[in-house]
Amino acid sequence: MAEMGSKGVTAGKIASNVQKKLTRAQEKVLQKLGKADETKDEQFEQCVQNFNKQLTEGTRLQKDLRTYLASVKAMHEASKKLNECLQEVYEPDWPGRDEANKIAENNDLLWMDYHQKLVDQALLTMDTYLGQFPDIKSRIAKRGRKLVDYDSARHHYESLQTAKKKDEAKIAKAEEELIKAQKVFEEMNVDLQEELPSLWNSRVGFYVNTFQSIAGLEENFHKEMSKLNQNLNDVLVSLEKQHGSNTFTVKAQPSDNAPAKGNKSPSPPDGSPAATPEIRVNHEPEPAGGATPGATLPKSPSQFEAPGPFSE
Prior knowledge:
There is one protein chain. The chain has helices at residues 2-32, 42-89, 97-130, 133-161, 168-242. It has 312 residues and is mainly α. The chain has a domain at 66-237: Substrate Binding Domain Of Dnak, Chain:A, Domain 2, CATH 1.20.1270. This is Myc box-dependent-interacting protein 1 isoform 2. One of its GO terms (cellular component) is cytoplasm. It holds the Pfam family BAR. Residues 29-245 form the BAR domain. It is found in: Cytoplasm.
């Protein structure tokens, strides 16, 4: 009997929900056709727009933060492999081997610590921040449904009041349903009217805290990494001094823009160095091809003395 009663309640609940959906659908159709007025709240609609914008921005930030963390992890792995390579090529009898191994170990720990702190202080905070949106979004949708129920109850009550043949029993029942629908709607509406502006205003502090945490962690990470790199450089400089006679010199490679060999001026046949063109200052003209060194240059017309009045 208890099971049958339970099934009966369940069946009744399903029937009630189906009836509500049908009533809401009819009400929305009448509103779209302009045959029924719709309750509007522009202030609340603006709050909903802000909520959707805030959710979109937060979701994007969460996605980009996860991408950043994935890049940090990838960089950690690349750095670790590079240090492992150094440990392999660093021969046992070379000075500074133990120091280099210790630096590599600290390098690995520093990357791990950096990644974990980013997760704790940025990603988890981001997840907590976004965790409140699904519930509020669900309540916004529910408020919309309750608003349709309220409009439907109001229109039904008004139609009974304006009918030519009034049925007081139906009017009283319709009024009771209207009061009930209005109460449910207003309770949800008041709560959301308070929560949505507060949530919207909280975004500034959240963004500030998130990016400050990331910036601070990154700054500290690079400071500590710089110290490790300096220590490694000192070890390598010491190694180079111990093996100074075996220094490897990197030769410059010709660039693509270098002139071709065929364009170079040929060397003298006797092996003597080619004459270097004389660099002239004050923009003095070079001597003509047939002129001998030391030959005087002709004066310009302005350098000749003007003929006197009695010159022939």
